[in-house]
Each structure stands twice: as C-alpha cells, then as structure tokens.
C-alpha cells in the first residue's frame, strides 16, 4: 500500500499485523530496523525541528500512532489502513519474541520502573531471552550505553526515553549496529510495570 504524507511525515500504510510480519522478516534477515511510532505530538515537533525531522526521515518504518494522524490522513484524502498504537505494537512484538525465543533489551524509564516491567515480561512471556535492561537516566552523548546494548546482541531494543530523546539515541545506535529492531516506546514501561 502506498505511503501517506501527513504534513511532511511519510507514514507506512499497514495494519499492525502487517507491520509485525515485516519486522519478523527483517529480524530473520538480521537487518537493522528503525521504527518510529509517530503520534500528532511527534509530527508537530518534527515540523518545527529540522534536526529531529532529519532523524525521523531515517526510519525504516513510520507507524501511524494516534487518532489525530488517522483523521489528518482522512482529511487529506489518503486514508491509512488503521491506527497502530505504540504500546499495542510493543505487546504484539513481545508476543512474537516469546514464540520465537528472541533476545530483547529494555532501555529507559526509572530504575524501579524498568525492573518491574522486565519482571512482568518474564512472567507473561517466559520464552523471551532478556538480553538486558537499563534505566533511561544516562548521558545521551556517552557511547558506553550503545556499546553495552550492542554487546548483548539483541534482536529487539525497546527504547523508553520519551521523544525526541529516544529517536536521537536510536539513530546514533544504528550508526554502528549490525542488526536489531529499534523502537521508541515513550512511557510504555510505566504502563507495563503497572
Ligand atoms: N525518560 C527516561 N529518560 C529521560 C527522560 C524520560 O528514561 O531522560 C522516561 C520516563 O521515565 C518515562 C518515559 O521516558 O518512562 C517518557 O514517557 P512520556 O510519556 O513522557 O513519553 P512520550 O510517550 O510522551 O514520548
């Protein structure tokens, strides 16, 4: 399906199921993949920030998150297949990671939040290999975190630093990464940890 441009951000026009299929194919081929789940806040922020806009342009997949994006596409006469909330996409990926015993790294949120989120994942998705986890309060410019995560050879890295931090970090990570699905998930660890 053709991509849809909503005020400068070019969305991939797929259903949640289709996105997951593409991600799994890329994991199998060991291709690195940058996923942005763009809600209206991200679209507006990118519009006003050329540096962030350039980063979003590097994404392999831009997922339509938020009703505002769906409504916008409709008004522009090029409707999107469906809304794909970032949290739901993360849950669907966790399910697949469990089925395929993938290696998953969890980066971001406060120490106790990420710990609780990982404990919940261990309980709900016992076959996932936890590659590692770390809180989100570190110096973004410090390359140590990038090396640490890459050293664990993750198939998927969920990055919960909020935007625009998470996308900035992911774009740096991918400069030297060999593989992995990298996805910014905002406040999702807070939800996951209950
Ligand atoms: N966060 C972080 N490091 C930071 C700033 C924020 O790990 O330097 C975490 C914060 O603890 C929270 C998430 O990022 O878990 C931000 O969630 P928020 O809902 O603000 O992000 P959004 O969904 O709006 O991108």
From TrEMBL:
GO biological process per UniProt: cell wall organization; teichoic acid biosynthetic process
Keywords of this entry: Cell wall biogenesis/degradation, Glycosyltransferase, Teichoic acid biosynthesis, Transferase
Keyword Ion transport appears in the UniProt entry: no
GO terms for MF: N-acetylglucosaminyldiphosphoundecaprenol N-acetyl-beta-D-mannosaminyltransferase activity
Pathway: Cell wall biogenesis; teichoic acid biosynthesis
Coiled-coil ranges from the UniProt annotation: none
The keyword Transferase appears for this protein: yes
EC number(s) from the headed UniProt entry: 2.4.1.187
Catalytic activity: UDP-N-acetyl-alpha-D-mannosamine + N-acetyl-alpha-D-glucosaminyl-di-trans,octa-cis-undecaprenyl diphosphate = N-acetyl-beta-D-mannosaminyl-(1->4)-N-acetyl-alpha-D-glucosaminyl di-trans,octa-cis-undecaprenyl diphosphate + UDP + H(+)
Family: Belongs to the glycosyltransferase 26 family. TagA/TarA subfamily.
Function text: Catalyzes the conversion of GlcNAc-PP-undecaprenol into ManNAc-GlcNAc-PP-undecaprenol, the first committed lipid intermediate in the de novo synthesis of teichoic acid.
Protein name: N-acetylglucosaminyldiphosphoundecaprenol N-acetyl-beta-D-mannosaminyltransferase
Residue span relative to the full protein: 3 to 196 of 245
